[in-house]
Every structure is written in C-alpha cells, then in structure tokens.
C-alpha cells in the first residue's frame, strides 16, 4: 500500500489496520476484524474513539522507520506487537470486537461460542485418582 | 399501610449471602422481617451468558469492579490506597450473583490462630458452634462435592461432585506426583435437578450470573423460600444511616427508595448484612450527637482490621487441549497441602490452591495481549486455535491476618448518587502475606512443571480480586478491640446485629461464603430467641 499523508486520517486506514491485525481466513471461513466491525456498534464506536491515539503513535513509528510511501500490513503488525501502552486501548477493543462476534465464535464451536441454554457434556469423574491422597493420609 | 411504613421485628440491610440466609431463617421462625437491598433484581434472561458477547459485558455492566461497572445502584470505591481493588455486585443476592460458588468450610484451627500459631486473634466462637449451621446452609444452598477428604471436617452429605474434567485430572495427577493433598471442590452448584433448580450445564459463565440457576447464588437458593415465608424484600433501596434516638438502642433505618425518596422504616432489631465494605460504610455514616464517630464505634475499630485474601496466580501452558474453559469457572479441584503453618516456612498459617477453569476466548486473548505474547497478522487465528484451552490456571488464596493499619474509612470527597460518602481503602500486604504469596508462587510453578507445562506464568497479588472483604467490624469478647460479641450483637447497641464477613476475626484461607451464611443463620436463631423472650408477635408486628 502506498501511503499518503491524508491516509492516516481517513476511515479506510482504520479498515486497513483492522485487516492487518486480524485478516480473514478463507479456508476456515473466518472473517477479518474489519468485516465484523459493523456487528457491534457500541464496540465499533469505542474502536473509533481509541484509534486516534493508536494512529498518532503508529505514525511516529512509521516515520522513525524511514519508510515513507511504503506501507504494509507487516508494519502495522510489527507496531502492534511492540505492545506500547498507548496502543493497548485500541488493541483491547479490537479483540473485544472480534472475540464476541457470533460469526467468529461459531467457527470455534469446540472452544467457544456456547451460550445458554446450550450445554457441554463433561467427562465422568473417576475418583480412583484420589487413592494416593487417601493412602498418604492413612500413613500419616 | 405500605411496606415502608410498617414497623417490623427485624430490618435486614443487604440481601446477599448473609442477608438472604438470616432473612430466610427469621422468616421461617415466624419473625416479621423487612430486607432492604440497594441493587435490583435480575432475571436469568438478563445474564450475559445468554449471548455470545457475554465476555464483553463482563468487562462493563457485569464487571466485578463497581468503579468500572458504574451501575445505577453501585457506589464508588476509592481503591487508591490498595494494591488490591474491591470486587462486589449490588443486586438481590448480592455478590453471590457473580461469585464462583467455591464453598468450603473453615477448619477448626481457623478459629484459633492465636492459640495454635501465635498470630492473629482467636474467635469467641469455635467451629463446633457453627457445625450444624454449616450443615443446614449446605442443605439449603445445594452443595456438591465428595465426602472423605482427609484434610476436611467430617461431613456426611453432599450432592455428587461436578466433573473435574480433563484439566482436573491433569493437575490432580501432578499433585499426586508431588505427594501433595488435593480434593474435588466443594461447590455451591447443583449437580442434580431438584424441585426448583436445574443442574449445572458446564457453560463456564458462572462469574457473570448463572442463567441455568444451577449456581447457588442467594437470589436463587434462599430468596424464593424467604419470600414464601413472609419476608418482605424491597430492592433498589439504599440505606444511608441507622437511626438512634437513645444511647444503646437503634430504632430504624433511613434509606432512599426506588423512586429516590428518603424514607424511614422502624424495627425492634436492625441487622447489618451489607458486606465487609458496605457495613462499616453505613456505621461510619451513622453519626449523631450520641455517636459522633459512628454507630457501634466507641472502640474506634469500625473499618479496622481489613483482610482481603491476596491471590497468587499461576498459569501453565500445555501442548494438549485440556478443555480448560469447560465447566464451572471457579470450581474443579482444590489443595490444602500448604494450609497450616510449617516449621520450615518463614511465615505463619497458609493458603489453599484452587484450580480455575480457563477464561473465555476474549479474556484469554486479553491476557496474551498484556503479556505481549499475542500474535497479530496472518498467524493470529492459528495462534488462537493452537493455544486457547491448553492452559491450566491455579489461584492461591492467602490467609490474610488482621492488622489495624489496614482499614476502610469514608472518603471526604467521593460520594454516591445520593451524596452518601464512598468508602476508601487503606491496605498493604503484611510481610507474612508477602512471604506466603512468594511461597505459593514457587509451589504453583513446581506443580505446573510436574504436570508437564511447557511454560509457566505466575504473578501476585492479583489486582482485581478483592472479593473477600473481612474483619471490618470484628467479633470479640473485648469491647475495646471488637465491634460485636460472639452472638454478632454490637457491644455498644443492644438491638444492632452484624452478620456479614465484617465480623470475621481472621480470614482463613478459603472462600468465606459458607462461613458467612453459617454465622448469619446462627445469629438468626439468637435474634428469634430474643424476640420470643420479649414476647413479640411471630405473625406480624406488634
């Protein structure tokens, strides 16, 4: 992506950042972070509100890397991975958006996405495993 | 006559663990009871677990931290003077609505720390004074577990234990390898259907309310029966003061009702069950010419001796899928291997290890973000799939000892929506607690290594875990160093009782809810006996 000064300012850049952080995955049919942005307007607004700080700091990072006019997803990922405290509120909201989205969680049914009144069958207890605990207490 | 205008035998302030238990007990004994609760009533459909965004609500409207939650019925808390922030929930059922349901009893030695270990103070009551009330409470609540624990009081009756799952077997095996004690958790969670309750369905969303009604939060366990017995429960009523016209006697409470109107209700006895932070707040705010430093506070000890159970947290990462987040969040297995003092340790008393089920996907990813271990970009989804549900988390509940330098007072500036001063926390970890915490972190890492963890992450104290707020109006024989006597009656005020964890003399190293309720049930019998002696009506106010 070629970056121009004004691109730091517009919403397209937010979409670019979101898709860089969590891209979609065709094989597993996972949406990207940008694709779920409209599913939760409350969190989407919080993302927009926290993006400015992220953007400002990313811009400084970008300039310090002397990569004017050469923008890439890798650079966004590199900056996010640094985990600066100023980027944290935005990144937290990106995770909140993504990992509370029905489309995302439905792709991990064995892990997540189970809500009431659905249930999970748990393995039966086999308490032979407690015999050493009882044996030790009897010896003592 | 409205419920507000009626004069009662007993007014109970707070409908949580303690308030629910004592209200039910008094109600079943025919006592005319009004319970005032500042929070509102939640229906199961309102709990976050009904929707995929439940973890998002756990970060906001169902956060355990009232300063984050900022609900209409919450009061702010100034935590600036503490490394541990207070956690609570204001609703019918109180904090039990979002508690984990881990429900062990105290041990007999927990009431005798001075005698057995030379630290803390001895309680004026002993385990045997509460034994029958523990039994009664476990029956009403519906407690599951396994009898036969060699380190636990001899109990005979429990519902079948919840599944300890893959994760429980993994960590239980590691305990065995190390030769350490462990046992399935004692859980206030129903595992068999009863007339009014459905069994646990292992969603793991316990800490945001149980839509299934399997978790024995007081709104589900005690309150339906308490109301059936005739107890009047008024929600959204914030008590500001206890009223006293005469020395040594209180007459009623002043509160803001659900419309925000200031009201007064009167009773023969007032029972405070507003939690280890809410109760001292009300007492300290109940000043008048008779009680210039607060009600029941001639000793100056209201709010003092705050104990919080600092928490050590250890997480092991494993290669295999442990189904970590399956099953009740806070209940799986526990260990009391390090519960008692040992000669080789540099600290007195001890701690309980409590295996936690893993968090949900969002909470887990946020923890990876904090640790700067999260992978962004093309490998992000693979990172989630290959790491999530492959961790085992264990908490160590540290026995905090009483210290007058740890206390709650009223903030001179911060107030709630009615202008009632907010509580302010002054708390630091003692050297004993710090040493115990360090020991727990070391032993927890040893445990995870024995279990085969490929990496271990550990820290403590955990900031947002001030759930167990104890000791701020403690029980004792000496009116100069305690607030209530062995019967939970104020030393200063003849018809004022305190029945929540404020009265704890020491903290033990287990979750306090079972003991809170046992104490409240016992106090209920004591008050009922006094009413009988006074000749009060058992079927209405006199």
Keywords:
heterodimer; A: 140 residues; mainly alpha; 6 helices; 49% helix; B: 542 residues; alpha/beta; FAD/NAD(P)-binding domain; seven-stranded mixed β-sheet; six-stranded antiparallel β-sheet; 16% strand; globular
Characterise the protein shown here.
The complex is a heterodimer of chains A (140) and B (542). By secondary structure, chain A is mainly alpha-helical. Chain A has one domain. Helices cover 49% and strands 0% of the residues of chain A. Chain A contains six helices and no strands. The longest helix of chain A has 24 residues, at 41-64. In chain B, the strands form three sheets. In chain B, strands 1, 2, 5, 6, 7, 8 and 16 form a seven-stranded mixed sheet that branches. Chain B has a six-stranded antiparallel sheet with strand order 4-10-11-12-9-15, covered by helices on one side. A three-stranded mixed sheet of chain B has the order 3-14-13. Chain B has helices at 17-28, 54-58, 66-69, 113-117, 127-141, 165-178, 223-228, 275-285, 361-370, 380-387, 431-450, 513-534, and strands at 7-13, 33-36, 78-81, 183-184, 232-234, 238-243, 252-256, 262-272, 311-317, 333-335, 351-356, 391-398, 407-415, 421-426, 455-459, 496-498. Chain B has one domain: 3-Layer(bba) Sandwich (FAD/NAD(P)-binding domain), CATH 3.50.50. Chain B is built from twelve helices and 16 strands. The longest helix of chain B is centred in the C-terminal third of the chain and has 22 residues, at 513-534. With 542 residues, chain B is α/β, with parallel strands linked by helices. The chains are: A mainly alpha (140), B alpha/beta (542). Chains A and B meet through helix 3, helix 4 and helix 6 of A and helix 2, helix 6, strand 4, helix 9 and helix 10 of B.
